[in-house]
Amino acid sequence: MNHLQNSQGTTAGEIAKIANVSRVAVSRAFNPDASIKPEKRALILKLARELNYVPNHAARSLVTKRSHLVGVIVPDVCSPWESQEIDALTTSLQSEGFATLLFKTRADKQIDPQLLSYIRGFNPDSVIVFVENVRRETLAKVIGRAVPIYVEYDNQTSAAKDQGSGMLYDRLNVCQRRGIEQAVALLQGFECKRIAFLDGHPRSLAARERKHTLSEIMAARGMAAPIIVPGDFTYDSAHAAILSQFRVDNGVDAIFAANDVSAFGAMDALRYSLGLRVPKDVKVIGFDNIAQVKWRAYDLTTVKVDLRERVDALIRLILRRLKTPDAPILIESLSTSLVVRGSVG
Amino acid sequence: MNHLQNSQGTTAGEIAKIANVSRVAVSRAFNPDASIKPEKRALILKLARELNYVPNHAARSLVTKRSHLVGVIVPDVCSPWESQEIDALTTSLQSEGFATLLFKTRADKQIDPQLLSYIRGFNPDSVIVFVENVRRETLAKVIGRAVPIYVEYDNQTSAAKDQGSGMLYDRLNVCQRRGIEQAVALLQGFECKRIAFLDGHPRSLAARERKHTLSEIMAARGMAAPIIVPGDFTYDSAHAAILSQFRVDNGVDAIFAANDVSAFGAMDALRYSLGLRVPKDVKVIGFDNIAQVKWRAYDLTTVKVDLRERVDALIRLILRRLKTPDAPILIESLSTSLVVRGSVG
């Protein structure tokens, strides 16, 4: 590793000389992944601080081909699930010596090829993309050496798809079925007959899989098909859709929402506009387990996706691929489970 | 601008030759700020896509001394205000040809000099820092050519301080007084006598200024001093502190919370644990105007900091400083105002 001279003039070579260590040791001291004796690292970092020496990642990235940047592409930074995931990811990436490079998709949640070119221009070591926001074919065209991590849902056949397409990506597969099964069992145990599925954004594969899996499980249990109420993951659309369902069509005795935020919108519509009680008149279940589900106003029963497990799996995938670029494709799997709170029973 | 060869082998020179334009034109086509005829830009971008050419920002940054990265350093990405600000910032930066580089402070909201060195290694063009997370002296030692933007509160004397310290930073000054004045007038109008200030994190200068300004205004209006209830901006601490205030000490007839999220915690404690009504028994006011204040369960009266205005001002400061590095220090100011909703009156 060859650190270029920094703006104040101190070089890695000078630090090495004063510390009486090799230049390689100076490089290693700044690389959290490199093996170096703790006291040697401490000495080098102390000297570097005193002499105002900083390795330049931009310069270094031309030499090492590493930028230490991980791109994350999301539709909304401010929706609670995404913001909680980005927060945890950034903490973990920072502790591994990487920084989060944040990008937003278009308002329709799609990604222009131009944005991908733009992202590639920053030379990220890895990119985390959600399968609903960009097709693999588009991604393959533009992302060169970056390692994309795909987040998929309940996908049994993706390894087979890889073989067909010739595009091999590491990925995280979120198995949503288990939590949904538990949710249905709970509602059936409370003898709910008319169950609504409050849908997510039409472009969301996660929501599509949730709806599909729910219908399948209810049919297998001999229950009537769920009533599909349109939604887009937001509080406002959920609030309006539930009002319309109860006022124009018929009410239901349970609502399974595609995410927690729309479950909040549904609960507020039931309580403040329809004068109904939760859970006595209508039971409500969400999906995600964001921090706000514990707020007393909601106390929401929800299908939990373990954020810590999810972020740890993403970090493992990124580091493994960077360490061994030729390793075979790895698919990490994540399960879900129901957390029962006051909004049911 | 000299684009190095990209990994697929196509160079800016080759694109220029095929498009029959100059190499400068190719550079301009990829720079959203550069002036170039729309049809010329379209042609170059089309050819670049077809030939899989992408300018490399890392390589370019060594030549132009621009990385097109803007660092943002926050304690929590997932608190609603921060996530909403980062979302809006990222959208604006992206449309100006920049990318957001995200960093987190320590859990105690301070920034290690080591983190600043680390950030400088990424060579950001600008860094947005919050004055409570890092002292100017620390920042000056480490940030070299990056343009820090300080966010300050109600600071009348900072220009004078600059002169003394020799450290000159552009900044955004959030004038919190106006909204607080309106809040106090409203509470006085409803004849509230015992008013609690539910405090923010002890290290937050924003909260300290809010408390200070509130006390000053109440004294000037001949009202009793506010009762200070400890807090840290979180729902849970607010919930516990309000329970303790009502059960152990005496109740109050109004709560002014240092942010919206702790106002939610206070409201839920009042309603679900203390059996009190909002606004009938206790009036509640928050600060920030995050998206969730409109949720029917809260419908919170709050002091609004206009997010759009705030982000626009930050972007203006960044672009101006990059365009004219020697321009005099600029302080943008932002006012606040009260938005009245159901939690009062």
Description of the structure:
Two copies of one chain form a homodimer. Chain A has 345 residues and is α/β, with parallel strands linked by helices. In chain A, α1 packs across α2, α2 (23-30) packs across α3 and α11 (235-247) packs across α12. In chain A, strands 2-1-3-4-5-11 form a six-stranded parallel sheet. Chain A has a six-stranded mixed sheet with strand order 7-6-8-9-10-12, sandwiched between helices. In chain A, α5 links the parallel β1 (69-74) and β2. Chain A folds into three domains: 12-64, 434 Repressor (Amino-terminal Domain) (Orthogonal Bundle); 69-175 and 308-335, Rossmann fold (3-Layer(aba) Sandwich); 177-305, Rossmann fold (3-Layer(aba) Sandwich). The first copy, chain A, is elongated and about 80 Å long. The first copy, chain A, is 43% helix and 17% strand. β2 (99-104) of chain A pairs antiparallel with β2 (99-104) of chain B.
Note the topology.
Two copies of one chain form a homodimer.
Chain A: H1 12-19, H2 23-30, H3 38-50, H4 57-64, E1 69-74, H5 80-95, E2 99-104, H6 113-121, E3 126-130, H7 136-142, E4 147-153, H8 158-165, E5 170-174, H9 177-189, E6 195-198, H10 205-220, E7 227-229, H11 235-247, E8 254-257, H12 260-273, E9 283-288, E10 301-305, H13 307-323, E11 331-334, E12 336-339
Parallel strand pairs in A: 1-2, 1-3, 3-4, 4-5, 5-11, 6-7, 6-8, 8-9, 9-10
Antiparallel strand pairs in A: 10-12
Helix pairs in contact in A: 1-2, 1-3, 2-3, 5-13, 9-10, 11-12
